[in-house]
Amino acid sequence: MSASGGARPKIDPELVGFGTVVKRCRVAAGLKQGQLADLVHVARSYISHVECGRTQCRRDFAERLDNVLNAGGEIVQAWDDLLEKVKQVRYPTHFVAFPKAEASADQLRVYENYLVYGLFQTEAYARVLLVEDEAVATRMKRQELLSRRPRPMISVVMEESVLYRQVGSEEVMREQLEHLIELSLQEGIFLQIARTRYYRGVRASFTIATQPDRSEIAYVVKATGGETTRDPSELAKISEVMQTLNAQALNTEDSRALIRKVIEDRWT
Question: Stretch 162-189: mean pLDDT, rounded?
Fold first, then answer.
């Protein structure tokens, strides 16, 4: 179908992280896309598609890139990790396309209206929700990006009711809310609490993962589980909703003060 028919090239979120590694290694080597294409004997457009996650290259091509760019195995390892690891890690079916986009993002913008954001959950809180050890381990592994340097900028707005919704014991809730305060004090993490009321356009929890090339992928929670999208019109609406939430939620300092008050009043 032609571009005029409204079709967009299919982009697999699982490949975006791999493409990011290729681009970083190419830039570090001081090469432009066309120069790299000449060295590995492909069209420049193919290099562009690999870097943007628009095509899945073969492992032998990843090896060629690694050798030409003197990447020391980094590109081959990225190919193995980002394309094969998903087969070994259990995610809910509706979520399986998103973790790689999350892992390769340099900015995450999140709204949560029911539970604590997954990357901010303590193991005890997550264990109540997930029960199975393997699922808990998977969630904890996702949190490794919090200790990555550089890590993505993370902006999270959580509805006030999340602070009061008991998950596990009072001790679990107290530990979880204290953990939120600790995270909110870290550089590059912005946590805001939205008072429980109506916000125009806000209907469900979502996460927007912005990639280094400024492309965006969103995961939106639905009644049946969730949906991953790159549709520009949907992303525009979700971004507008996020701007509304950022503007109307409590600022970060007042949010911390509210969390401390809830700990004292409800979970102590």
Answer: 97
Residues in the chain: 268
pLDDT tens digits for range 72-103: 999 888 887 765 554 444 444 445 467 778 88
Q: Is the entire prediction scored with pTM above 0.70?
A: no
Long-range contacts of 195-202 (CB under 8 A, 24+ apart): 195/160, 195/249, 195/250, 196/159, 196/160, 196/161, 199/241, 199/244, 199/245, 199/248, 200/244, 201/237, 201/240, 201/241, 201/244, 202/111, 202/113, 202/241, 202/244, 202/245
- The torsion angles phi and psi of 75, rounded to 5 degrees, stand at -70, -40
* Beta pairing class for 107-112 and 189-194: unpaired
The H-assigned helical ranges of 69-132 are 74-84, 99-104, 123-130
CB 102 within 8 A of CB 211: no
Is 6's pLDDT higher than 80? no
* Mean of pLDDT values over 155-169: 96
| Pairing outcome for strands 206-210 and 189-194 | unpaired
